[in-house]
Amino acid sequence: MSQKVVASNRRAKFDYEIVDTFEAGMVLVGSEVKSLREGKASINEAYAFERDGELWLESMNIPPYTYARDGGHEPTRPRKLLLHKREIVRIGEKLREQSLNLVPTRVYFLNGRAKVELALGKGKRTIDKRQSIKKREQQREMDRATRRRR
Length: 150
What we know:
By secondary structure, the protein is of the alpha+beta class. The chain is about 35% helix and about 35% strand.
């Protein structure tokens, strides 16, 4: 299985406490796929939501393909996500009951197909973020100390 990561949202792991992850396909037009293959995409501001039994990805930016006819596609249009019906129902229940958010963490190609990794996450408060920073700094200090001893 070859996997080529196009875009990642590193900020999501800092802003959210990740509960569960899912892999979904995306409905794309040809010029969007070409642009993704060039490695041009941004999911930093993107989010997903459920509407009428379907999952949608909003605010993902895929810039227009340079050589596309008629100007290509709209860069930030809503994109339909492809999952099994029971997965969509399960995600929708968790979004409503537990007040979780659905954020994309990675966009990648898996065996030639564009996929997005979605994470169900609970928003962190400022105190939690400070603790994450403190934990990360402590881990760096420990790594530096072990390198110095070698």
